[in-house]
């Protein structure tokens, strides 16, 4: 099989705050910004990976989602228990300093993991966990 990842989705409760973080702090480019039926989807991605996108979407973005399910998703997002993504970077420490400098919620400072990578973690403005991993030099 010939499979490639094209898009992944991250729930956000404020697209403008999310854009400030993903675009201005992390340096991702905005590829699309679409509104439909009172909802908004913003697509961002790394200039180094033009074929991979992260869609920042509202919690429970399906218009057929029940009010109870929308409320449950909003509560989970507010608690910070929804998963985010893992990025790779050539310099975990420099990235950590930049993101922390912009006031992001630090979850884990850079550290060497027993499985061979150096990584750190933050929460985005919506509370999603994002990890930043530096692979060991060959």
Automatic annotation (TrEMBL):
Domain VOC: 4-135
Pfam families attached to this UniProt entry: Glyoxalase
Gene3D superfamilies on file: 2,3-Dihydroxybiphenyl 1,2-Dioxygenase, domain 1 (3.10.180.10)
UniProt keyword annotations, A-Z: Metal-binding
Metal-binding recorded as keyword: yes
Superkingdom per UniProt: Bacteria
Keyword Metal-binding: yes
CDD domains: VOC_like
Matching PANTHER family: METHYLMALONYL-COA EPIMERASE, RING-CLEAVING DIOXYGENASE-RELATED
Protein name per its UniProtKB record: VOC family protein
């Amino acid at each position: 099989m010939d499979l490639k990842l094209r898009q992944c989705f991250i729930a956000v409760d404020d697209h403008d705050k999310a854009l400030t973080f993903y675009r201005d702090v992390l340096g991702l480019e905005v590829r699309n910004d679409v509104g439909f039926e009172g909802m908004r989807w913003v697509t961002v991605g790394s200039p180094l990976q033009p074929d991979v996108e992260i869609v920042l979407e509202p919690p429970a973005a399906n218009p057929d989602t029940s009010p109870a399910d929308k409320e449950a998703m909003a509560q989970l997002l507010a608690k910070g228990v929804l998963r985010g993504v893992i990025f790779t970077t050539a310099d975990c420490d420099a990235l950590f300093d930049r993101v922390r400098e912009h006031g992001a919620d630090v979850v884990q400072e850079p550290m060497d993991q027993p499985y061979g990578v150096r990584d750190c973690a933050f929460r985005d403005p919506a509370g999603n966990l994002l990890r930043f991993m530096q692979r060991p030099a060959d």
